[in-house]
Fold this sequence. Notes:
The complex is a heterodimer. Helix content of chain A is about 45%, strand content about 20%. Chain A is of the alpha/beta class.
Amino acid sequence: MTDKAQTTILILDDEPIVSKRLKPSLEKKGYEVETFTVSIDAMKRVREKNFDIVITDLKMEGVDGMQFLTEVKSRSPETEVIVITGFATMETAKESFRKGVFDFLAKPFKLGEIADVISRAEKKKQG
Amino acid sequence: MKNIFTQISDKLFHRVSKGEPSSFAVLFERFQEILDINNQILELIAKANDTLGGDYIFDRQHVHTMSLEISNRVEKLIFTLDSIAPKKYRDLHRAFQRIRAAIEGDLAGRFTCPVADFVIPYRNINRNLVEAVGGKNAFLAEVAANLDLKIPAGFAITTGAYLEFIKSNDLEPKISTILQSWHQEKIDVAAASAEIRKLIINGKLPAKLEKDLNRALEQLAGKRSLKKIYLAVRSSAFGEDGERTFAGQYTTILNVQATELAKTYLQILADTYGEKAMLYRRTIGFDEGEVAMAVACQEMIDSKVSGVLYTMDPSHPEQHKMMLSATWGLGGPLVSGRANADSFAISRSTPHKITAVNLVHKKKALTLLKNGGTKEHPVSGDRQDTACLDNIQIQKIAATGLLIEKYFKYPQDIEFTINQEGELVLLQARRLAIAAPPKIKPGALAKLTRNYPVLLRDQGETAQKGVGSGPVFLMSKEEDLRHFPVGSILVARHASPLLAKVLRGAAGIITDVGSTTGHLATIAREFRVPCLLNTGQATKLLQHGQAITIDTEEKIIYQGIVKELEEYALTEDDLAETEEYRLLRRVLRKIEPLNLLDPADKNFAPRSCHTFHDITRFVHEKAVNELIDHNYYQNHDHRSAAGKLDWPIPIDLIMIDIGGGLKTKNKEGLIKHSDIASVPMLAMLEGLAHPKAWNNEPMSVDVGSFMSSLTRTFSPELAAPEHVGRNLAVVSDCYANVSLRLGYHFTMIDTYLTDNINDNYAYFRFFGGVTDSCRRARRAQFLGQVLASQDFRVETHDDLVVARVKKLDKTGLRKRLYLLGLLIGFTRQLDVKMVSDQSINEYITQLNSLMEENHDR
């Protein structure tokens, strides 16, 4: 990472462990990271700010992941969305591709795997 | 695998039975089902273990799903065994339900004690027993066993004893009711506490506990009279010291005469429900259902000086200093903050310079009374204002503290005492909670570390993530390890399991070659030692004694000690302590360990199954037996012939023919070479019968040195042939299914060999069961390399080796089956001889030459 503007990432997952694990690891790599466990809060935040990358689970209480990512994409089409999900919702994950999702990962996944997806998303943004 | 089995089964039995049901056909189908489920379970267990490495991100849901997947298969396994041996293994259901209930308890957050013992002496305790003996006991015993530090003699009374006490006195519903009244504010905390305490104090100890306590005391006393033994009796709650501190919430009672232990024990239990402790638990949201008190019973030490060391300043971790306070006499007043104490600030770097001293006026000291109890005595005038520790002692305490920190990989809060002989004795080592929010933000870290020279970047694979710093210890030969200093970074050519011996004390491990699914990686994960494998060149790049810092998550090796990283790693939220990891670890303890080893042992029974792995192992063994009994000893089914192999190899092998596998059946039930028509079986047996595969020449290796590193007391490899167990082959003209148990190696081969290349396959599974870990992993490595070089697709997890090959022509597959036969014989005697990693290559060469011999024939 250089001193130019940091890549901003928002993470939404209702199980806190996911953010807890991802945040320090991504920050260490020089990303600016915000995390949420409640989808309503994340929704509020994306209405205030456009993130470069959004990482979200699909199955959650309240606003579900699909609604959330639809909102993100409609507000800020250039935001790349990465879906993380358990096997049970894999079909839905495929459906999410049609909504313009960049990629999805099945839980459990490795830190290295998500780091790869993020850096690919970054490259795509930088064109 | 499943598909192959079903397909093959259809093919085989179509031929055997031509539509009419064959009892053996059914039996064999079930048997194959058992093998299939068995393999699935072993692979799921191996996968779950990998997930612990810190490299995966998973949630609670995953732990639930994983447990359910395994649990369902184990249940299916038992039902399948039932179907071939109706009503014979009813106890197995009870064992299954017991284990499943314990796992469900874990998943639901209920506490269960993992061992049946009520009392465990310190020498038998390690940190894996933390749920049974509590944090205080577990960490202290672990330190004593592995770091050669002195701790008081003693034993632990387990959480299981507490639970049994509560149960036998029927206290649970009563306590529950009182707590409820308190939560509903019908009574205040003081009243609730007093009522519960009274219930406990008036309770009766279970008879077995009383007996166990007396035995433990007698062992402690040796030849001395019990009246002369005085104890420090301390609470050691589960959850204490590990997850939440509970510091100072529970009680310690000093200088208790051994004969008074039972009474004191009840008092400590009662204090679990002291007002302060109850309020504390409510504040931190600790479920009362999880209260389970273990107790430490330690022989009382007559202290000259006592003190506390923090290996880091919890408010200012960035200052890289340790904080030490100490006073004359016993430590009680100091720990509880009642006494004035001398305090010292000491640099974390060697030599540990004392950077600040604050000496106080010490008027009184707590000392032991002759007939039990303690009393504050005036300190003699000349000692009131002198430092209670000298520089040499301070140096030693500081170094010891850092050693413990390096060992546990957390900043430490250490209680110590110096006895009348001047020896340093540890009383407690627990994780120090860092109060200050980390000064270093992870984002800033990338910038802060940018100025340190990087020796290696983006090379190798991470087996355990983390940061470690210290001097390089470059290992060239095995003997070097004897001099490995705790806190160094071990650098070696191969990820040899031999390194496991010193791994716990290492600040990090780097190798040129090695795999993250190997045995060393598993142990590195267990002890959270940062571990970077397969870097290709670390041994060439790094010099012995050179100070380095590794960050295995980023795969970077820095030159020098990067203090910023070290501080970040020590103060970072630790993922091994997150609820999900603890849960997975706890659940896996009831799934993974294999305790059932020797089928000849009377404990090889459902009641001794402690884990799902035990059940899996038990079912497999019994399924093989059922098949043999059914067809060899009883021979009910006229359509399947059976006999015992009559070959000059030391294997007792029963062969069952299900269609064209045998030419004739000998009257005596003996099967000779010329009787066998099964093409795949013959190929395997020819390999197996190679004289060099069973070379039993006297072993020249130093077996003794191996034995000394064994945690178990026997050597399966040296078992006599009559103990090698029952082995079974089910064959047809083109099919063979072989289950072998040689010593404690379990081998399974399933193969189909015809002129049709698309149908041909061989499946090989090897599991080492139990033996010294070094040899086990070398053996797996050897098998893996040989099989991979012969086009098998190989997966190894620790010492489970699964290899598959398919779509080979007849000649090609026969050659592989010959190899499998050769390997079985060869491997059995191999690991006794595998004294070093180089020997792996030697044996690969040897085996290849045996293969070529065959080829030339």
